[in-house]
Specification:
homodimer, alpha+beta, Aminopeptidase, Alpha-Beta Plaits, five-stranded antiparallel sheet, 414 residues
Chain lengths: 414, 414
């Protein structure tokens, strides 16, 4: 039952499409710069719609610019199985992050067609809007809006660094696209499958071509503001200083100690650190820094995140602190039945697979609460991602599409 | 002999000018933000040139934008007695740091004129360029260049945080100023007197309105660059990270430990601290920070400064560091004869004075090696400086100008 559709995956077509799509927004260094809702992304969408049309897939969009290519012989209103990822990139992005998941989904649908199958449940290949969040923060905007996790009006009002609102960027991109129907956000879905590059080295290290993603680590983010008092570097005695920089340095190291675990599962990062007035001969009176804290287990993430404020306060000395939690997303586990279906499909095709955790966030995070959701990973060389040097093996790309095809054949086709 | 010129000091005019000048670059919180070579500083210079013109003083400048207002009945080439300070401020500066010394000098010259005196030696009221060093590091740029302690071309090539070179900032400011003659740097001078706010609390604590400055503590400044590797905050395991921020935090605390002395004489400050790429979800790959290190004794300053690089290297972990010494000025003693002249003038006027050390650096540092140099301090409330709350008493401002006038009357007028 699995063999025929998987065997119909056209490895060359998939590989050529990956590189054809990468020409939209291509960087001179071999990478891709394809911002969400840009003209470059519009070109990529036109290309996708064209490939879908060759396979008889009907294009749709919605109020957030998500693109759907539907394989559907019957009722246009029936809930669909969604399969895909995103096609926006980081400014210094690679060819495969996101794009692979969309094109593997399209290839899987065409493989089912080539194997003479028909959809029992409609299948939609999807490209979610602004997963990366590098143009409009935060990311996973299209999937979050689709799933009802964020308010549409709030999303539409967000602005990029140039001051352009999502609503205006959407309108500008739509003017560059063919006139396709718009369907509502928050439609029900029967399942969501997302293939993606791993963005880590677990699969590469184990020499395994396929990861069945167990779930996604949780993430809490904070902003810490340390307030001291400005003073003259040459005259203010040490005893009377309220040096915000030294206090913040103590906090950074205290937080590092708090989050150092033997298993090396905690991800703790201070990525942003702004000092004021930031002049060489003035004792800083203010530091604001970010904390990005992630862990695969809810209990540990809760314990560590809840300890952030007290850990900072303990070493604040004469400075004042204000700690604000900016976001909190608990760890997720993907649907056991779907994970099992993916693993069984791999086994039946003779493709080695292993369970892996996802350290990065993906659109699947927002689909998981509304429908059975799972992900599969293929290796990427050295774990390098968000970088022009992002690289994958053709054989791994093919294996991922074959497992998608075999899984869809079992779950939604006849 | 002293009484007449000192009595001619116009206390109201001096006080009003201090507050008129503070309007150029005024902050809403009552402070002053008047960067070196800015449009705001150009406005302040135009005002100074105007006040000088009312007193018949001839304006000059030089290749570094230092402003001179010359009181001179005779030979334009004759070396002058220089009296003044600076008019640039810290970004969060007050009204009196620097400005007081320039306006007290102008008031002293006008008092001599009002007392019917003439210069035996020409007198130049001077405002040195970029004393603060907050726009272009290091500070005391104009006086250092004038005195030949730094190379002019090297100074002109320095850039501010926005990438603007000193040469270009000078040209931009000169376009905003009246066309005044330019005279060479490294002209000989017969003496230099600088009045300044104390920026400490010795005078206030003792209830003494005037300090005769004995000398200046030494100062060494450094720039430390820490290079790690950027990585994804969500995926990069702690064990493989090369986090430049955490390494820099360790260096800050190791340097703090190195410089903590029981006597609290060491002044150690990290005032500037720049992180790249400074994004919340990226492990920083680069931190550049400043070190400002001061001590009144040469031996201690040498020992501590020489230990900076090794102290940073010891805690650099997997990061690389580059330590550059930007400036080194050993402790100084001011000219005994000039200090004595200032003290005698104060005594003869019935103004209490005491010897005080200067913890801060001043332009006088660079004049001291080339001509007899001395400074006098007036108290500033609570020692608060480089801050909008900087505050002085009108009576102290007057007393300083009176002692300057009486001293000049004795040394250079007839």
């Amino acid at each position: 039952m699995h063999a025929a559709p998987a065997a119909a995956v056209d490895a060359d077509r998939l590989w050529q499409r990956l590189h054809a799509l990468a020409r939209h927004g291509a960087r001179e260094d071999g990478g891709v710069d394809r911002p969400a809702l840009s003209a470059e992304e519009a070109d990529a969408k036109r290309t996708l719609i064209g490939w879908g049309a060759e396979a008889g897939l009907l294009p749709f969009t919605d109020a957030l610019g998500n693109l759907f290519l539907r394989w559907d012989a019957g009722d246009i209103a029936a809930p669909a199985a969604l399969v895909g990822s995103h096609i926006d990139s980081q400014p210094t992005g690679g060819k495969y992050d996101g794009a692979y998941g969309v094109l593997a989904a399209l290839e899987a649908v065409q493989a089912l067609q080539a194997a003479g199958m028909r959809p029992r449940i409609p299948v939609e290949v999807v490209a979610w809007t602004n997963e990366e969040g590098s143009r409009f923060a935060p990311g996973m905007m299209g999937s979050a809006g689709f799933a009802g996790a964020r308010d549409t009006a709030e999303i539409l009002a967000r602005r990029d660094a140039a001051g352009i609102a999502v609503a205006d960027a959407l309108a500008a991109q739509r003017a560059l696209l063919p006139d396709i129907p718009e369907r509502p956000l928050r439609r029900p879905a029967t399942l969501f499958l997302e293939a993606h590059i791993e963005q880590a080295t677990v699969l590469e290290t184990h020499g395994i071509p396929l990861g069945i993603v167990t779930g996604m680590q949780g993430k809490r983010t904070f902003r810490v503001e340390v307030t001291g008092e400005a003073a003259h570097a040459g005259t203010a005695p040490r005893a009377g200083r309220r040096d915000a920089l030294l206090a913040a340095a103590r906090m950074a190291l205290a937080l590092e100690a708090l989050t150092t675990d033997a298993e090396d599962l905690v991800r703790f990062t201070i990525g942003r650190f702004d000092v004021a007035p930031n002049a060489p001969s003035v004792v800083p009176d203010r530091v604001a820094f970010s904390i990005d804290l992630r862990h695969p287990e809810a209990a540990m993430l809760t314990r560590l995140g809840d300890a952030v404020a007290a850990t900072c306060a303990e070493v604040a000395g004469p400075c004042e602190i204000a700690v604000a939690e900016l976001s909190a997303a608990m760890p997720q586990r993907f649907h056991a039945g779907l994970r099992s279906a993916l693993a069984q499909a791999a086994t039946s095709l003779g493709i080695a697979s292993m369970p892996v955790a996802s350290a990065a966030g993906h659109d699947a995070r927002f689909l998981e609460p509304i429908c059975p959701t799972a992900m599969l990973f293929i290796p990427c060389r050295g774990g390098i991602t968000h970088h022009p040097a992002e690289s994958i093996e053709p054989a791994h790309a093919t294996a991922g599409a074959q497992v998608l095809a075999a899984t869809l054949a079992q779950l939604v086709a006849a």
